[in-house]
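Suppose a colleague, Dr. K., hands you the sequence of a protein chain of 71 amino acids and asks what its three-dimensional shape might be. Before reaching for any lab equipment, you can write down a predicted structure in token form. Begin with the sequence itself:
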Amino acid sequence: LTATQVDVLHMAAQGLTNAAIARERHVSERSVEMILHSVFQALGVPTHGDVNPRVEAIRHYINAAGMPARP
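The predicted structure, expressed as tokens, is then:
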């Protein structure tokens, strides 16, 4: 993952919404959505089916880096 992808995933793991991440990073919500979609692809997380891709990506993050503190 790129530094940007890790940063966005870190914020998602803190419980921030896409809108909150966008405000914090000074980008559009669509940009955050696109970054998260690229994270899903990089991690091999399916975006269709019974598993929520955001939750699954965050599970990967927590396994690798631990639970982040809330901002």
